[in-house]
Amino acid sequence: MAFAGDVHFEGRTKARLNVAPPQQALGPISKQLADADLSMVNLETAITDRGAPQAKAFTFRAPARSLKVLQDSGVDMVSLANNHAVDFGQVGLTDSLAAKASSPIPVVGLGKDAEEAYAPHVAEVKGVKVAVLAASQVDEETNKNWRAGAGKPGIASALDEAALLDAVARAKAQAPVVLVYLHWGQETNPCPTAAQTALARKLASAGVTAVVGTHAHTLLGSGMLDSTYVAYGFGNFLWYNSSSAGGTETGVTTLTITAGKVTGEEFTPAQINGQGVPVPHTGAQAAAAVKRRDGLRGCTGLAPVGR
């Protein structure tokens, strides 16, 4: 299974919607996503051409065809449980839900109500059922105003830990492998917050196979928390500007899962170029980037995979 970070089609990356062939929208690193049995990113945007922007500093949106572009680029699934999924209000949310309903790839973390928003996508990979769900722990306008509830559309919230843990229990009843993709952390902080580590422990205790996520605009450390793999932050991936501190280092994390446990981790490092596209490192640059990324584990309390 391959994971990468935050993606959207704004500013300099808007042109990636029209790249030919479409398989190159994410650049050459698409190969790492396409080669995995299942791959996933966070789509950091409302999926709409309509609606009024919400009263916040940054608002992002993309047309529904962005989902097909991501599919062509090797992405098998996206999360919309983030702080930009409802940047264009109720009209944009209605469009995003319609885009989800007609999407060529599964979309998790957003729904017409809480039941749908927290529901996992269950896939069969080489004879093994895998359940993937998503939620946001970012405490801001989207989580306050557009949290899914009973009869209320919106995002799945990780701030409602009881709802998230209940969703995990229901996912485990459907599949032996459960992965949770979270939007969490503090922007530009390369170390996990207390809220992240506390939630990771609860999800590990609930038997989650892997907990991964984004939001900080910079890479964070990863490794094993007992028998659960945790990646605290994948950073930006296809990104509209270069102003985020630490935001140009990125990559694809590929996990090997054997008998329901993460037994291998491979990181393909990349640098976001002037067009906002992740370009894989090679040679000595790649080795140095992997070493920097592995060094981020020091403030996480996690153990290396395989030890």
Q: What percentage of the residues does DSSP assign to strands (E)?
A: 25-35%
CATH class, please? Answer: Alpha Beta
* Largest β-sheet summary: 8 strands, mixed
Task: Note the overall shape.
Answer: globular
What's the tally of helices?
8
Indicate the CATH architecture. Answer: 4-Layer Sandwich
Q: Mean pLDDT, nearest integer?
A: 96
What does this entry look like structurally?
There is one protein chain. The chain is of the alpha/beta class. It has one domain (2-299): 4-Layer Sandwich (Purple Acid Phosphatase, chain A, domain 2), CATH 3.60.21.10. Helix content is 24%, strand content 28%. It has eight helices and 18 strands. It has helices at 30-35, 66-72, 89-101, 114-118, 141-145, 161-172, 194-205, 283-295, and strands spanning 2-7, 39-43, 46-47, 61-62, 77-79, 107-108, 110-111, 121-125, 128-136, 154-155, 177-183, 210-214, 222-225, 228-231, 236-238, 249-258, 261-272, 278-280. The strands form four sheets. Strands 1, 2, 5, 6, 15, 16, 17 and 18 form an eight-stranded mixed β-sheet that branches. The two termini are 20 Å apart. The mean pLDDT is 96. Belongs to the CapA family. It comes from Kitasatospora terrestris. Residues 1-241 form the Capsule synthesis protein CapA domain. InterPro entries: Capsule_synth_CapA (IPR019079), CW_Biosynth-Accessory (IPR052169), Metallo-depent_PP-like (IPR029052).
Write the layout of secondary structure elements.
Layout: E1 2-7, H1 30-35, E2 39-43, E3 46-47, E4 61-62, H2 66-72, E5 77-79, H3 89-101, E6 107-108, E7 110-111, H4 114-118, E8 121-125, E9 128-136, H5 141-145, E10 154-155, H6 161-172, E11 177-183, H7 194-205, E12 210-214, E13 222-225, E14 228-231, E15 236-238, E16 249-258, E17 261-272, E18 278-280, H8 283-295
Parallel strand pairs: 1-2, 1-15, 2-5, 3-4, 5-6, 9-11, 11-12, 12-14
Antiparallel strand pairs: 1-16, 7-10, 8-9, 13-14, 16-17, 17-18
